[in-house]
UniProtKB/TrEMBL annotation:
Source species: Pseudomonas simiae
GO biological process: hydrogen sulfide biosynthetic process; sulfate assimilation via adenylyl sulfate reduction; sulfate assimilation, phosphoadenylyl sulfate reduction by phosphoadenylyl-sulfate reductase (thioredoxin)
Pathway involvement of the protein, from the record: Sulfur metabolism; hydrogen sulfide biosynthesis; sulfite from sulfate: step 2/3
Name of the featured protein: Adenylyl-sulfate kinase
Family: Belongs to the APS kinase family.
Domain of life where this protein originates: Bacteria
Reaction equations catalysed: adenosine 5'-phosphosulfate + ATP = 3'-phosphoadenylyl sulfate + ADP + H(+)
Signal peptide (from-to): none
Length: 204
């Protein structure tokens, strides 16, 4: 059963900092969180890396939060049960929100399989600043790519609760951006995201 912790606490009162979510005056872009969701080996990290470079070339200040990286540090105490996955996403969303408030464009590359957990992340970050990007690759395609050999291990029973094999992935219904990675190259995928950002950036 999914678990979303009760974040309410009567003794906590966040200070209303003046510049929160406004970014630095020198920045000429709207800070957003570009949340990439998709199966393992769908291309999230590859596209995130290329997008990061493209945004920096435009003079935008960025940060990347990658699923494997946080699993090795911030979330290394978590497993892959539904409740642990939800907590993993909550932590990432909280960190992304802090980066957002510093004025960055934050690129998150995270499987985030549950639609409920993605909705929860959106509620933490704020709908105005949350850009859901579905990096779409069919399971068969992801398995053929399988650069880390994870699907093979999951099929052999060596990895439990693996998304797409013995753990469900909820396909996004109305993502801000949909990337069909069978039809689009990495460059075309990046261009699609950049086009969305350009049309929704109130600062340019």
């Amino acid at each position: 059963m999914s678990y979303f912790p009760d974040t309410s606490n009567q003794n906590l009162h966040a200070f209303a900092f003046s510049r929160r979510r406004a970014g630095h005056p020198s920045m000429k872009h709207k800070p957003v969180v570009i949340w990439m969701t998709g199966l393992s080996a769908s291309g999230k990290s590859t596209i995130a890396d290329a997008l990061d470079i493209a945004l920096q070339e435009q003079g935008r200040i960025t940060a990347i939060i990658d699923g494997d990286s946080v699993r090795g540090g911030l979330c290394r105490d978590l497993g892959f049960t539904d409740s642990d996955r939800d907590e993993n996403i909550r932590r990432v969303a909280e960190v992304a929100r802090l980066m957002l408030e510093a004025g960055l464009i934050v690129i998150v590359a995270l499987i985030s399989p549950s639609s409920a957990s993605r909705h929860f992340a959106r509620s933490i970050i704020g709908n105005e600043f949350f850009v859901e990007v579905h990096v779409d690759a069919p399971l068969e395609t992801a398995e053929k790519r399988d650069p880390k050999g994870l699907y093979k291990k999951a099929r052999a029973g060596l990895i439990k609760n693996f998304t797409g094999i013995d753990s469900r992935y909820d396909v996004p219904v109305f993502p801000e951006v949909h990337l069909d990675t069978q039809a689009l190259s990495v460059e075309q995928s990046v261009a699609t995201i950049l086009d969305w950002v350009a049309h929704n950036d109130g600062c340019t």
